Amino acid sequence: MIPGYFYQPGSSRVQECAARHSGDRIAIYADDECVCESLVETLKVSAHLPGQASELTFTDGARFVPLDVAHRWSFQSGKSSLLASLESNLALIVCALVATPVLLYALLFKLVPGIAVTAVQTMPDAVVEQMGQQSMALIERTVLSPSELSDAQQQAVRDLWQDTLAQLDLSVDKYRIDVYRSDHFGANAFALPHGQVVVTDELALLLAEQPDALRAIILHEIGHVERMHSVRLASQAAVASIAIAILLGDMDIVAEVVLGSGSALMDLQFSQNMEWEADNYALAQLARLGYSGEDFAQALESLVSLDDEQEQSWLKYLSTHPSLQERIEHARTYTPSP
Ligand SMILES: [Zn+2]
């Protein structure tokens, strides 16, 4: 007799009992009375796992759990023995524990950015265009409203833009600027991957008397577009979630990412490296056009000087890092490479 517990089907009642195995039959006895009997071949036997009792499940859902966790049924098939030996092999467990994070790291930080960069290089302009337009449509609908600046104020921004663009031989067809009011963004400028740059009323007002500083900010934004930063981030996010979806076997995640990429772009945060790249682009262009890095340094200082209640979203990321001062210093001491 094998002592154990008997669980009635569909109830939480537990009985102390004993199982008797004879030939092709199993019978469960509680208080010398047979409470359940079954053919061995109709039973389900749980996998052999170290430290876990090998329980029997009857066709009606009743279960018998042996008291002795090491008890193994003679009729149990060997199909779970591989699992059992894996589970009891400490070296393999340790390997798996070490390998999983290493694999995840390699996948997410090495393979994914690698694939993403390749994807960006081969990304057709039409895809970038659509990505930018869809994001802009979403942003415009949700967090932008028509500019409340006077026509003259808006025109001043556009003139500055035209002037800069003409001097840089950037495509007039690709790049455009728009001025919007936005409570969400505060004093801010951002660029969408297809070349649309947005300047908020608050930023235009803040730098109304410092057009060269505003030009520096605009050049920084153009830098993000020229270096394809948002396309890079979006494709990294997409590749990463596809990798995770494959790992988890849940393809719904992919649909969410593809459908949600517009909203993801809205509050996109560039990496610190990308900000440095955009800064350097702006500084190099300023130098080329005969302006100085001081214009960019002043723009950063004006944004820092905003009251706390006012949004400083353009600096949101970097203001939390000590590197803001570094950025200002870098702009002041920048010398273009020959
Ligand atoms: Zn930036």
Automatic annotation (TrEMBL):
GO MF, one example: metalloendopeptidase activity
Family indicated by similarity: Belongs to the peptidase M48 family.
Keyword tRNA-binding: no
Xref: Pfam families: Peptidase_M48
Domain of life: Bacteria
Organism of provenance: Pseudoalteromonas rubra
Full protein name: Peptidase
Keywords: Hydrolase, Metal-binding, Metalloprotease, Protease, Zinc
GO cellular component assignments: membrane
GO aspect biological process, one term: proteolysis involved in protein catabolic process
Ranges where the Peptidase M48 domain occurs: 152-333
Cofactor detail note: Binds 1 zinc ion per subunit.
Co-factor requirement: Zn(2+)
